Amino acid sequence: MARVAERLDFATMSLYRHVSSKDELHSLMVDMAYGKPPLLEGSDKDWRGGLELWARAFLEIFRRHPWMLQVPVSGPPLEPGQMSWLECGLRTLGRTGLSPNEKLSVMLLMVGYVRNNAQVSMPLTSQDQSEEELMANYGRAMDKFVDAETFPAVRELIEAGTFQETDDDFTFGLERVLDGIEVLIRKNTGENPLA
């Protein structure tokens, strides 16, 4: 609170006229940082494309405001900015045949996937290294210390040059999440879920 007050040129105690606690201030800051969700025209007809655009736009928020990842999630969203993102995502699921409970569960899965990906990758890439450089360095370090007898599966990754490749892990994971949602939608509509 003292740092915020200093930046706003206020006395620390005067901030308490506007917010009751540091947690409330964090909540308001996070909500402002969310901004407006993307316009997903026609996404009610293409739920998968809509959710992919939603997820990429959501990830971009964390890239622009990495400090948000340090604010603990204390419950479901109640603030207008966060609610607008939830509404946007739910609308993409409008014609899927999912129940309201399933739609909410899908959106919680999406929020969790994007936030977790950002949580894992942001600190790593903020060390003045690209993700490719970071992974290559990690692979070289592991090569020195990982033996095939103790960690055969990890050693296989090293031998295959996995840490030298520059795959888009976010896209890979997002596609798997969307594949799982598609199985649920097909099951609910009576289609063969694995077709």
From TrEMBL:
The record's annotation in Gene3D superfamilies points to: Homeodomain-like, Tetracycline Repressor, domain 2
UniProt keyword Kinase, yes or no:
no
What keywords are assigned to this protein? Transcription, Transcription regulation
Query: Which domain of life, per UniProt?
Result: Bacteria
Give any Pfam family that matches: TetR_C_1
State any GO BP term from the record. Answer: negative regulation of DNA-templated transcription
Q: Show the InterPro entries listed in the entry.
A: Repressor_TetR_C, Tet_transcr_reg_TetR-rel_C_sf
Annotated ranges, domain Tetracycline repressor TetR C-terminal: 44-183
Any idea what this protein is called? Tetracycline repressor TetR C-terminal domain-containing protein
What organism is recorded for this protein?
Streptomyces roseus
